[in-house]
Amino acid sequence: MKTFDVVLTKSYIIKIKAENEEKARRYSELFTGDIKDISTEKDRKLFLFEIEDIDCKVNETFEVREVA
Q: Measured at the alpha carbon of residue 21, what is the angle toward residues 35 and 29, in degrees to the nearest 5?
């Protein structure tokens, strides 16, 4: 079986209460975590793969907007 590094970018909409836009931006980046492997052993055998590691490389805020 071969090994591959695959970089994935995930996007989220996070509703957060904070003192201001800058803190909302920073806390959203700081306090969100990596995704975990949710495959089952059956999935790995059926599709012949194994996720060895997930290392978050992108966690960046692109826009902040106040909502009611």
A: 20
The model's pTM:
0.60
58 within 8 A of 35, measured Cβ to Cβ: no
Instruction: Tell whether the model's pLDDT for residue 20 goes beyond 80.
Output: yes
Dihedral over Cα of 62, 14, 24, 55: its sign: negative
Q: Are 29 and 61 in contact (CB under 8 A)?
A: yes
Q: Which residues contact 16 (CB under 8 A, 6 or more apart)?
A: 24, 27, 28
Structure tokens, 16:
């957060």
Q: Which of 11, 13, 3, 7 is nearest to 64 (CA)?
A: 13
